[in-house]
Amino acid sequence: MFRKILLATDGSEYAFHAATTALEIAKLNPKAHIHIVYVIDISNAKSDMLQYWNSNGADEQRMEKIKPIVDLIIAARINYSIHFLRGEPGPMLVKYANEESFDLVVVGSRGKNRFQELLLGSVSHKVAKGANCPVMIVKTKELKHPKNVSTLKEHLKQNQNI
Predict the structure, then answer these.
(1) From CA 32, how far away is CA 128, in angstroms rounded?
(2) Structural domains in the chain, sorted by start
(3) Which single residue of 66, 93, 98, 99 has CA 20 to 30 Å from 129?
């Protein structure tokens, strides 16, 4: 079964839904470890620094984005670690997944149409094509993730028809 799981996140609702799926997979193996990976897109890094005045402010904002996912994993008592990488998200996730020999990569899908994907590319598509391990692309309707674990039950109840 899957033990070393890479969960790609950008803090979006799609990433949160992918996290719930990764969590369900991790629960099947008591030795599972979820590696939460946030790739800092180098094309946005300068604007982040200008917006938050320094890299510390940008780092705090990134941690705040992934906090609901971390809270979810902590509540489930699953081993985890957080990794911030810099680069273009698709290629960087592929490189990291292959270098670190993950058993599974879980990534959310934004549901772009074919034209948007052709024009802009898709992180999930790049990862699926380039990773040496299985890749699970979690498609979902638009969700709003809870801000903390106390609202998780309510969130799941509202979205149980996913």
Answers:
(1) 21
(2) 4-158 (3.40.50.620)
(3) 66
Which parts of the chain are beta strand (E)? 4-9, 33-41, 79-87, 104-108, 135-138
Among 36, 4, 18, CA closest to 137: 18
Report pTM.
0.78
Asked if 9 and 18 touch (Cβ cutoff 8 Å), the reply is yes
Beta-bridge partners for 38: 9, 84
Q: Is 123 or 47 the better-scoring residue by pLDDT?
A: 123
- On whether the CB atoms of residues 109 and 135 are closer than 8 A, the answer is no
Q: How far apart are CA 96 and CA 37, in angstroms?
A: 9
Distance between CA atoms of 87 and 103, rounded to whole angstroms?
A: 22
